[in-house]
Amino acid sequence: MTTLQKLWQRGCDFLGTDAAILGGAMSWVSERTLVSAISNAGGFGVIACGAMPVDLLEQEIKATQSMTTKPFGVNLITMHPQLLELIDVCIRYEVTHIVLAGGLPPAEAISKVKSANIKLICFAPTLTLARKLIRLGVDALVIEGSEAGGHIGPVSTSVLAQEILPHITEVPVFVAGGIGRGETIANYLLMGASGAQLGTRFVCATECQAHADFKKAFIRASARDAVASVQLDHRLPVIPVRALQNAASARFIDFQRQMIKKLDQGEIDLKSAQLEVEHFWGGALRRAVVDGDIENGSVMAGQSVGMVKEEQPTAHIIEELIAQADAFLARN
Ligand SMILES: Cc1cc2nc3c(=O)[nH]c(=O)nc-3n(C[C@H](O)[C@H](O)[C@H](O)COP(=O)(O)O)c2cc1C
Predict the structure, then answer these.
(1) Which of 9, 10, 97, 150 could be a cystine partner for 73, CB 3.0 to 4.6 Å?
(2) Does residue 146 contact residue 228 with C-beta atoms inside 8 Å?
(3) For the CA of 301, the nearest atom of ligand 1
(4) Do residues 47 and 73 touch, judged by C-beta distance below 8 A?
(5) Interval between CA 150 and ligand 1 midpoint (Å)
(6) What is the pLDDT along the chain (332 residues), one digit of tens a residue?
C-alpha cells in the first residue's frame, strides 16, 4: 500500500472509490457525462441538481447510472423549494451519497436522508458548525475555502484547514477550494483530511459538456482573473461568487452604482433595489456554460483556473493528481 493510499483510505472507504477525489458538483456542468467519467476514472462524480425540477433530476440520475456502475453522489441545494421530493427521488433510485449545499440543512431533510441509509455530506464553514453538523448526524464534511469557484465563504482554504482539520476526527473531512495539483491534496491529507474536492480543474475535462468557449476562457485565464463579486453598498447585499472577470461583472458594478443613486434619491424603495441586484445574475451561469456567452454570462471559476492549461480526458486529470501526490509523498 502506498503512503497516499494509507492517507486517503478512510475517504476512499467512505466514497467507495479508488481515489478520494470528489468532482465537486457544478450547476449546468456536472451532468451525466462528466459525473460518470469522474466515477469511471476512480474518483467520485457528483451530479449538480441546482434548480432542476424533480423529473429532470430523476432523468439525470437514471442516465448516470446507465453510464457507470461506480458510486457517485447527488448535490442538492437546501433552498430548493422541492428539497424533500428531490431526496425522495434519490431514495427511489438508490443513490448512495447526498451532498446538501447552500446553508444549514433543515432537520427534516437530514432525517429523511439518514433514515434511507444514504450517506450525507455537508459543507462546514466554521468549526462550530462542523461540530453541530456532526451532532445532527452528518456522515462527512467538506470544508471549502474562498479560492473556490462559484458561491464562496469569506475564509481561505488554508485557514479553514488549520481551524478545522486538527479538531474533527469523528467523520471524514474533504478539503475544497483552490486545489489544482496533487501535492496540495497530499498536504491536506497529511494535516488530517480524508480527501479533496475539485471543481475548476474538471471543467476542461474532455467529457465535460460545457460550451467550447467556456472551456477556452478557463484555458486562457490566470488565477488573478477569477475574482469574487464586488458589493458596493451594505444596503444592497451581494452574494459572494468567484468568477472570471468579464463584461457582465463590469456592468454589475455600474448597475449597483445606478441602484445606489436611485435609492439615495428616493426613486426606488430598498426592497425593490435589493431584488434588482439579486436578479442581475439570474440565468447567467447557464448563459455562459450552455450558450457559451462568456461576456454576458457568469463564468464561475476558482483561482486554480490558472493551472488549467488544456483540455484533458478526465482519467488523465485524476492520474496526474495521483502521480503528483505520490511523487510529493515519496520525496518528503
Ligand atoms: C461553475 C461552477 C459551478 C458550481 N456550482 C456548484 C453547485 O451547484 N453546488 C455546489 O455545492 N457547489 C458548486 N460549485 C463548487 C464546486 O462544487 C467545488 O466545491 C469548487 O469548485 C471547488 O473549488 P475549486 O473550484 O477551487 O476546485 C461550483 C463551482 C463552479 C466552478
Answers:
(1) 97
(2) yes
(3) 31
(4) yes
(5) 5
(6) 899 999 999 999 999 999 999 999 999 999 999 999 999 999 999 999 999 999 999 999 999 999 999 999 999 999 999 999 999 999 999 999 999 999 899 999 999 999 999 999 999 999 999 999 999 999 999 999 999 999 999 999 999 999 999 999 999 999 999 999 999 999 999 999 999 999 999 999 999 999 999 999 999 999 999 999 999 999 999 999 999 999 999 999 999 999 999 999 999 999 999 999 999 999 999 999 999 999 999 999 999 999 999 999 999 999 999 999 999 999 98
DSSP 239-273: --EEEE--HHHHHHHHHHHHHHHHHHTTSS-HHHH
CA of 25 to the centre of ligand 1 (A): 6
* Residue of the CA atom closest to atom 10 of ligand 1: 25
How remote is the CA of residue 135 from the centroid of ligand 1, in Å?
26
Quick one: which atom of ligand 1 is closest to the CA of 99? 11
In order, the DSSP letters of 94-153 are T-SEEEEESSSPPHHHHHHHHHTT-EEEEE-SSHHHHHHHHHTT-SEEEEE-TTSSEE--
Domains of the chain: 3-210+309-331 (3.20.20.70), 222-300 (no CATH)
What is the edge-to-edge ordering of all strands in the sheet holding 226-228?
150-151, 241-244, 226-228
Phi and psi at 100, nearest 5°, equal -105, 120
